[in-house]
């Protein structure tokens, strides 16, 4: 009989307090998670210095996450607007045990978000056309709620467009998340390499309302353009109506040669 996953290998189920006052609030809506298992040795070269792949039962995961940012609020309550986003991400842990996300790419339909994210945090935002559509019976048979996401990068167009189209059918609510479902959703920050240092940005939000989902189709080049050979097999898919997330700087990691 297989042993139960070690709970110490999972992120905490609720967000730790932010280390500093929040600098940004985002309202995330209609969130879809697509995940494939990935050998840790394939993820390791793509992570910033001072971090390593976070693993669960010997594997890590690569994810494609798509959603609407319904609203952004910046310091002083300044509104930052909304947009569509599709990101490719890996899962990381640093020397202090902080488990987070590393973004390999973030497709966003807001040009000013792309510029600000690159300049302020070194995040690999790409200006793209992103669409999000949620409806009842989107699979055509009237059974369940469906969602569709599409993105196509505006620039650069060589050596071929970075694009993606994803469709899913929403199923039953997740009342008791599995270790895998916790591993890929209970992520309370991100690691990014900016201005010569690896930095931690903390995040906090209420618990996800998750639903299991069935993939109805996916066609994408985002993983390949991010340096990942898409693993074979059908991805694991989750859906959430969304949550409101606060971000705060968490400081730089020690320098690594």
TrEMBL record:
It comes from Streptomonospora nanhaiensis. InterPro entries: ADC_dom_sf, DUF2071. PANTHER family: DUF2071 DOMAIN-CONTAINING PROTEIN (PTHR39186:SF1), DUF2071 FAMILY PROTEIN (PTHR39186). Gene3D superfamilies: Acetoacetate decarboxylase-like (2.40.400.10). SUPFAM superfamilies: Acetoacetate decarboxylase-like. It comes from the Bacteria. This is DUF2071 domain-containing protein. Coiled coil: none annotated.
